[in-house]
Amino acid sequence: MEYETAGEFLAEIKREFRGEDEEIIKVAELKRLEQRGKTIKKFVQEFRRAARESRYERRPLVKEFKKDMNRTICQRLIESEQ
Predict the structure, then answer these.
(1) Predicted confidence (pLDDT) at residue 20 exceeds the cutoff of 70
(2) Are 26 and 50 in contact (CB under 8 A)?
(3) Which helix (H) or strand (E) holds 34?
(4) Nearest to residue 19, comparing CAs of 55, 46, 44?
(5) What is the mean pLDDT of the chain?
(6) CA-CA distance, 26 to 52, in Å (whole number)?
(7) C-beta of residue 78 within 8 angstroms of C-beta of residue 57
(8) What's the mean pLDDT in 23-29?
(9) Helix ranges restricted to H, 1-82
(10) What is the Cα–Cα distance from 68 to 54, expressed in whole angstroms?
């Protein structure tokens, strides 16, 4: 099959691999997220948005969240759990 434009080609690929592709993208977003200078509220919003379709289970999702958040906040969270 020939395509007139690169856009047509990409649209066809998206149609073919839609379900798996979205899940892979969401997992990649989760792994790429970092809090850095964001407020915890903003970080949580971004994390939840990326987590929705990632199909991560509870424990790996919590682990990913703690890995990505600001180290000082994470340390305080860990200390409060003890």
Answers:
(1) no
(2) yes
(3) none
(4) 55
(5) 79
(6) 8
(7) no
(8) 78
(9) 6-32, 40-51, 58-68, 71-81
(10) 16
What is the spatial distance between Cα 12 and Cα 18, in angstroms, rounded to a whole number?
Answer: 10
For 33, phi then psi, to 5°, come to -65, 140
Write down the pTM of the prediction: 0.54
Nearest Cα to 39, choosing from 63, 64, 73, 76? 73
Give me the pLDDT at residue 49, please.
83
- Compute how many other C-beta atoms are within 10 angstroms of the C-beta atom of residue 35: 19
Q: Is residue 49 within 8 Å of residue 32, measured between CB atoms? A: no
pLDDT of residue 73: 80
More confident residue, 9 or 53: 9
* Rounded distance between C-alpha atoms, residue 16 and residue 9, angstroms: 11
pLDDT of residue 51: 83
Q: How many residues does the chain have?
A: 82
Tokens found for residue 22: 């979205």
- Evaluate whether 35 touches 69 at the Cβ level (below 8 Å): yes
